[in-house]
Specification:
Purple Acid Phosphatase, chain A, domain 2; 37% helix; 2 domains; single chain; elongated; alpha/beta; 398 residues; six-stranded mixed sheet
Length: 398
């Protein structure tokens, strides 16, 4: 793969509020959960304070502290069992604050034994949610099937693309092992990678860099593979080239290439993501001075934020990631945070504007630093695209 130039490595990038929040939360990472115990006891006492009688106060405080301790044990065991590798203290403290708020609010509103029963249900439910979001959903790899037909595709064969995004590798877990098995079973014709191969905690870890290189090599052994870089704070310009160096992967660094496979002819465009959508959009337009013409064109760009530019340029299929689908979602509301300039407009899944189909992958991995290694209502995802000739509609199929 070609290496980035010195000028590219010096390209300024913007660090959004999510990154700043993760950096602040990571300040708790060096503290062990045991060292946090006095603060957790204090929070439990604060939560119990509004309950009117001493017996209710003792029960409410004990309930809050007990569920916090269960959280701490659960989070501390994740790396020991190879489920994830994040620090337990930041999410433990966040959960402790949430539990304290629940106990305090119910004590202020409904300080009776019936209220305590409701508090117990909520606290136990939060234990179950925490366990599911950290132990189960992050390993529940899903396969989304999409079919796209276009008059720009000429031929009788079907072309199968496999889109993989946001691997965020920290270490081997059941998710990465399942990914390799699934890629082999799907028999893709092309594999397309849209960035964020490590995360903010593992980017400087030599062992993680070697292991994600091994993972990418096994993926690339299954089919011709094309890749772009992800968010600048994650896919560091001085690290990512060494991960890809020597691998049979074509790195599309502000490049357009034409691909002939299965009798079909298409153009792949890959753009480096700087998180400056105006500058990145200008680079896209320079790569397509005369729009796409009659050649079916696929854009690989880490973020969905170039959708207006992609529509204006006549891009047929735009593949992105970055948002993780929010990673933690609320029922009926969806993503709490997307890190997109467009907020929730392109938070996950399939969108159509004009003649352009955009798919925003939920990705595979999770944010680093002080973020919880958790997913809720946003399971990891890879997307299979079956492209065929002579039609013009996109069909959903899962």
């Amino acid at each position: 793969m070609d290496r980035t130039s010195d000028q590219e490595a010096r390209t300024p990038t913007t660090h959004g509020p999510l990154l700043q929040a993760l950096v602040v939360a990571d300040l708790l990472s060096p503290i062990s959960p045991a060292a946090l115990l006095p603060a957790l006891v204090g929070l439990s006492a604060i939560g119990a304070w509004p309950w009117h009688t001493s017996s209710l106060q003792i029960a409410a405080g004990a309930l809050t502290l007990a569920t916090i301790l269960v959280d701490g044990i659960s989070l501390s065991l994740l790396p020991r069992f190879g489920r994830s590798y994040g620090p337990p203290t930041p999410p433990l403290f966040a959960l402790a604050l949430l539990r304290t708020g629940i106990t305090f609010a119910l004590g202020a509103i409904y300080p009776t034994w019936t209220g305590f029963a409701l508090c117990t249900l909520l606290q136990v439910g939060l234990v179950a949610t925490q366990a599911y979001a950290t132990w189960i959903e992050p390993a529940r790899l899903t396969i989304t099937h999409q079919r796209l037909t276009s008059p720009k595709l000429r031929g009788d064969a079907t072309l199968r693309l496999l889109h993989i995004s946001d691997i965020h590798f920290e270490g081997w877990t059941p998710r990465e092992k399942r990914l390799l098995e699934t890629v082999k079973d799907l028999h893709p014709d092309l594999v397309l990678l849209t960035g964020d191969y490590l995360n903010l905690s593992s980017a400087d870890d030599p062992e993680a860099r070697q292991e994600v290189r091994d993972l990418l090599a096994q993926i690339a052994a299954q089919a011709p593979t094309y890749a772009v870089t992800g968010s600048p704070p994650v896919d560091l310009a001085h690290i990512v080239p060494s991960i890809f160096d020597g691998l049979p992967i074509t790195w599309l660094m502000d490049r357009a290439v034409e691909v002939h496979i299965n009798g079909l002819h298409l153009r792949l465009i890959g753009l480096r993501c700087t998180r400056d959508r105006h500058a990145d959009g200008a680079r896209l337009r320079r790569l397509l001075p005369d729009d796409t013409g009659d050649l079916f064109t696929v854009l690989l760009y880490h973020s969905p934020d170039l959708m207006p530019d992609a529509v204006a340029c006549g891009i047929d299929l735009y593949l992105a990631g970055h948002t993780h689908g929010g990673q933690l979602r609320l029922p009926l509301f969806g993503a709490l945070v997307t890190s997109s300039d467009f907020g929730k407009r392109y938070e996950m899944g399939l969108y159509r504007e004009g003649n352009t189909a955009l798919y925003v992958s939920r990705g595979l991995g999770m944010e680093g630093l002080g973020a919880p290694r958790a997913r809720f209502l946003a399971p990891p995802e890879i997307i299979v695209w079956d492209l065929e000739a002579d039609r013009s509609r996109v069909h959903n199929g899962r």
